């Protein structure tokens, strides 16, 4: 457990806050490129600021401060023709990458983008989407760096044919076997978890030791300050940012990256629009309708009884903690090691900025532009060779990739 003062320090993100200062020193996804089709001005609510994507006199896209009523709800997005720009407010640079518009709200020169897989892959092999969650950004991030939660929260009591599950997480076969991922997570719910600090954040390795002398190795990553990179299937990875709208609301922005065939964007988008409404990308299942909880489904199909979309499971879990989780009452255990290590990174970064040691922040140097990867996959290997097997599985996927995924 932590003090109330520290909990406020690591969760609040408005202008002038310690955590907000850290987040502003990194490029953050502000909108999907597809949103630019809805009008000349696109409303953006980001880290407590009411903004809008506009084009300047030279036709360049930028993020400007918009005029907003004092009592305007944080998730209110006015129509394009009703957006008024505050001429005296700050403006911020933006770039378009991998289906999303990224903005930099910090001072000084923006950092370079790392050469991660999601930014290296051609447009044909990436797909971006987002979804709104009614909770603080930090608890949204922390569920993504907890490898143990998948065995419980995303427990499927029946295993569907993975060949029919394109675009759905945890529905592939585990490693190079015919074991459905859902079965492996269900049968081995208590992984050993190893966490290593890296140049980009944290490498998180979950080891599920099987009875036959083999080990399932799942490598995921925390990309500082508010993103994760995890395997979706053997073909695809997910890079996901948890971007604050304000202290009590956030968006997850996901870039799906394919190492094999071009992404079926039409199918991926259709799958997700079945669960979200436009223009705010709000989930159709939410607290107001009990997330469509169905006790008969819970008895025979899923742990939550809330459908087959794992985003809904995560949404229920993080929103159920309240808008801002009360960490003064939590009791972290062994499976929370990545969460503990991440909070240390965040506190270290906040302290560094306050002490003027900006150069110590992760991914701020010129070398960031050459940073590749990260390794993010599932593999099954003999238990005494899991490190090498995990690395080789990643190398084989990269070698067969139709675009340059070398590291």
TrEMBL record:
- Alphabetical list of Gene3D superfamilies matching this protein: Naphthalene 1,2-dioxygenase Alpha Subunit, Chain A, domain 1 (3.90.380.10)
Q: Which GO terms describe its molecular function?
A: 2 iron, 2 sulfur cluster binding; dioxygenase activity
Q: Where is the LigXa-like C-terminal domain?
A: 112-392
Give the matching Pfam families: LigXa_C
Source taxon at top rank: Bacteria
Q: Which organism is it from?
A: Thalassobius vesicularis
Q: What is this protein called?
A: Aromatic ring-hydroxylating dioxygenase subunit alpha
Report keywords, A-Z.
Answer: Dioxygenase, Oxidoreductase
For this protein's source organism, the top of the classification is: Bacteria, Pseudomonadati, Pseudomonadota, Alphaproteobacteria, Rhodobacterales
Coiled-coil annotated residue ranges, if any = none
Entry-linked SUPFAM superfamilies: Bet v1-like, ISP domain
